[in-house]
User: What shape does this take?
Amino acid sequence: MNTKPRIAAMYSRGTHYPRLLRFLRNEYPGCELTAVVPPAYPERLLEGQCDRILRTEREQYGLRDLRAILTLLSTLRAERFDALVVMFNSVKLRLLASGAGAASAYVFTADRRFFPVTLSLLGEAWDYLARNLRGRITYAYIAWVVKHQRVGK
Amino acid sequence: MRIALVDLMFSWPPHGGADVDAYHVAAGLQSRGHEVKLVGCWSAGTWERGDFDPAALPFTAARVEFPQGIRYAGSDLDGIVREVELHRPDVVLVGDSFFLKPALLLRLAGYPLVARFYAHEVICHKDILRYRDGAPCRNSFLDTPDECRACGAEHQRAWIQTGHPLAWTEEYLAAGAFSPGYHATTLNALRELRAAIVYNPMMRDLLAAHVREVAVVPGAVDPEAFPYAPPPEHPDRKSILMTGRGEDPAKGADILLAAGEILALERDDFVIQITMPETTTGPAWFAALPWCDHQTTRDRYHAADICVVPSIWDEPFGMVALEAMAAGRPVCVSDTGGLRDTVEHGVSGLRFERGNPRALADALRRLLNDAALRRTLGEAARQRVEQQFTWDRIVGWNIEPLLRRCARGGR
Assistant: This one.
């Protein structure tokens, strides 16, 4: 029976995925590290960086790709990872981390901060909606100001 | 002199050319006997700023932290101003920042002020590139504020609506840059400057009507960080390298790929490598290289036969061209912005018409066919860097005299 902690590192289109893998390998040398990467991610870049490669179905996921997202979540849940690490502190990725069934979930940011995802799935969803609502109200105000309050000459 | 360098975007190791510039200017001034303090900041709102350890730098530094993100141009700048006050500077050099630069300058107006403009901050509200719809934009916020406000708001819509702003949008919101009053704030701030430092004459012309003095000072490179190496031996396939943000359309990777298609019709002895997200795919003669640190970048230059900077935007300086030149590589650069001053056509590299893949293909063909030319241009490039573009020279000949003149009691 495999008793090594199983950690999954989820790729997002960003510059610091190799750094994330190196960080996890150094910090948790005894773990089984799985790179969760899209189909086109070159295998040569993962050589020596991880123990397993798990390919996602798609290159990118949008909110409309509900079926594909559910498939991804189901794949991740079946793996029963001890920890899932995502690359950005975005609500979408934190939602994914919360729903992936891993025992714990973390964010590793480009400036090398590493912190746990603490909100529940419901909490993440609420945070996402609240941010979007606030953002849309802010933008509506900005658009109004730009259109109706001119600098002139 | 006691010098405060305020840079709201600073990170070390560097995230970009502006960080390299700020670091070497601060270190160069310090090594010349001045008391330098760099004031940077970290914001929880974005990963782009403040990724540095003040204790690990060779000069005094402070990092002001914003755990809630930067939200107000007024009170949020208090911590920055306080760190400057603690240093009691004779002159303040304001480095990289975006929409907060005017507010910062006004808050520091009691000191003699000099500001470094790295790209088109203050001029463009869309982004620092001043590049729109596939071509350089000719508007300037200083002269066409309402057009630029509309463009800026439109292009930042997604970042604002989703509540996940990057540093550019974080500062846009904090500074209220969408408001009509921001234009007057910007003009007033520019009037407070004793001098502005820019990379090239085009940028000087944009600011000249609004700032007392505008000095054109190029960037530089540390020749020891990018040592000369003889050309690599690739008998089968020559390596053509483009480093930097390859996925940014303004950087012109499409032009290089189009030139590659032209060359691929006649030969198969080359591979084009571009720094891009790892998942980018393309023809057999193309390879995406993941982003990397400074050390790996140096190794990539050494492994390359030719380096290309195919920028379509008005590249202010083009640090990557200079790094490749220092490493002794022949460069092919767009005839634009600061690259015109860095590369002498036919002597220390080749320049080609901006946005023209056929012209780039012609230049690459010349280099691919002629090993002696590659070697000659690479050696001349290294020599040019050593003679004209070292930090010692730029700081000693340009920055230090300018700061002396502008400093309190200076002449």
